[in-house]
Specification:
This protein is mainly alpha-helical. It has one domain (about 5-45, about 50-305). The chain contains 14 helices and 2 strands, in the order αααααααββααααααα. Strands 1-2 form a two-stranded antiparallel ribbon. It is globular and about 50 Å long.
Length: about 300
């Protein structure tokens, strides 16, 4: 029998999770309780313990009181935002070609996730020296990523336009996930500050410009939308992200909730391009309750697993 369509499976599992909240909470948090000391964070692609946060403003890459530290400090919503960013980034055909042709995302998805998480953590909570060392490493990798996309256009990972695209898709997804599923809501002014603070990361990586406010982000997406579409490589990446690698039923439910929550963060036009159905009230009635339960369970598990 053919395997079920991953989009249909996503909707089905999300509906099951919301229909049985008590059973879902046990399924979503049970593995976390059992594995606290052996790598809940590692299973999500981050280090076993939170990295030390530099508190000296003279040493920190981003100020200790920055909005970015508060946005990036909530692991559950960052996991959701990270998957949303990956889905959104697939829509740029040149960026997607670089991932498909040079990344081992299907062979080592957790390795890629860990490297991304380590970079975000270092540039958010590390020293200037640590952040610039991480940036130099990424720029070195980018210099080797070049080729020809399926549409015949050449691409290079150090193209300033592509760097801006990847950065904006990531930051908008992180902020969107935290606003929807995080423990606090940020004001409009704080959201603008977040984009302004994180724009320096894109510039350090080689972008020539990055938006510094919500209005500039909206204008940027409006400008690039005619260039975005879901080609074969994007649909293959979408399906891979929806399938995941989980084998235990409870892990599959957790993955389905993360994926559904990530989809809910995407702009409507991006969902349309990725051919993801949007049933009426599905996000509000099904996805949001399940995702909030999953986030609460993970926050509890991580607090219970730390001694500091």
């Amino acid at each position: 029998m053919p395997s079920p369509d991953p989009v249909e499976r996503l909707v089905s599992l999300g509906t099951q999770a919301a229909a049985a909240p008590r059973r879902f909470v046990e399924a979503a948090t049970g593995p976390l309780r059992a594995d606290l000391s052996r790598g809940v964070r590692r299973a999500l692609g981050v280090s076993d313990t939170p990295r030390p946060r530099v508190t000296d403003p003279d040493l920190a890459f981003l100020h200790p009181d920055s909005v970015t530290r508060r946005v990036h400090g909530d692991l559950p919503s960052m996991v959701i935002g990270g998957m949303a960013a990956l889905l959104l980034q697939t829509l740029h055909p040149l960026a997607m070609a670089g991932v498909a042709q040079h990344s081992a995302y299907e062979d080592d998805p957790l390795g890629r996730l860990r490297r991304t998480a380590a970079f975000v953590g270092t540039t958010t909570f590390g020293t200037r020296e640590e952040a610039r060392h991480a940036v130099a490493h990424v720029r070195g990798v980018h210099r080797k990523v070049r080729g020809v996309a399926p549409d015949g256009r050449p691409y290079s990972a150090d193209d300033p336009e592509l760097l801006t695209w990847v950065h904006v898709a990531e930051m908008a997804s992180f902020l969107g996930a935290v606003q929807r599923y995080g423990p606090q809501t940020f004001t409009g002014e704080e959201c603008d500050a977040y984009y302004a603070e994180t724009s320096v990361i894109a510039l350090e990586l080689g972008a020539e410009w990055a938006p510094r406010s919500r209005d500039e982000v909206a204008a940027y997406f409006a400008r690039v939308r005619p260039e975005l579409y879901a080609g074969r490589q994007a649909i293959e990446a979408r399906d891979f992200l929806f399938r995941g690698l989980a084998r235990r039923p409870q892990d599959q439910v957790s993955h389905a909730v993360i994926a559904a929550a990530a989809v809910s963060v995407l702009p409507g036009w991006a969902r349309g391009e990725l051919r993801i159905p949007n049933p009426p009230l599905f996000d509000q009635a099904v996805v949001a309750p399940a995702a909030h339960l999953w986030c609460a369970g993970l926050r509890w598990a991580l607090r219970s697993g730390t001694t500091s």
